[in-house]
Amino acid sequence: MIVGINCGHTVSGTIGSGAVGYINESNETRMIGYRVIEELRRRGVTVIDCTDNYSSSVSENLRKIVAMANAQPLDLFVSIHFNSGGGRGTEVYTYNGEKFPQAELVCSNMAELGFVNRGIKNGSSLYVIRNSNARAMLAEICFVDTQSDVNLYNQVGADAIARAVSDAIMGNRMEEELTMSQYEELKRMYSEQNARIDVLQNEVYKINNPMIYNYIDENMPEWAREAVEWCVENGIIVGTGEGLGLDDTKLWTCVVIYRLAQQLV
Q: How does DSSP assign 152-195, residue by residue?
């Protein structure tokens, strides 16, 4: 089995370095991605590092990543990312939203660690998914700008998350390291804590920002959601610890940019 692993974006502080919130996407993709590489190699998998640290533009970064992946006879290409724009949990993008085992296992294994399972989504518009010769998936580990997600991420730790992703790539459910009762207690505790935090965040948001869209979840209009997700993924808009801060005008701008980009493909 030959697997390509990409630690998403360039290094922190450079062009295309990803989202920044309570944690830095660029730093964390490398924290998880390189652990996944080590874990897979320990298990006898041939792994190709498809990470690009420095590029002059987002487009150049994406082209370099795909070129590294397509230069090898990969069985699977995996790009590690972190989400932004509000929300909670783990989601995986595949071509046409294909629900193949490794992609579904990333979500279910992360759910075993306490993260919300946001499921498989259509990533056909994403450059690395659309242009990779091998079957590809882009895994969004959690949200850098949602405090409850970051708290859980820090508590679980990079090693456990890397093992969960590695198990998924190998086609396995996460290896049991805690007893079932310990897992259930951990999930219950974080579920209660996260629910309280998210309720408070939502109430503050409703009071202070009635016309601003900080999240890509239920509060964002359906007509803008796909375009905003694409703009976030391609570094056109970047969230902060406060969210995306988009009003209706900015939503329409994202839609226009997205539609123009589709015409140019």
A: HHHHH-HHHHHHHHHHHHTT-PPPP-S-HHHHHHHHHHHHHHHH
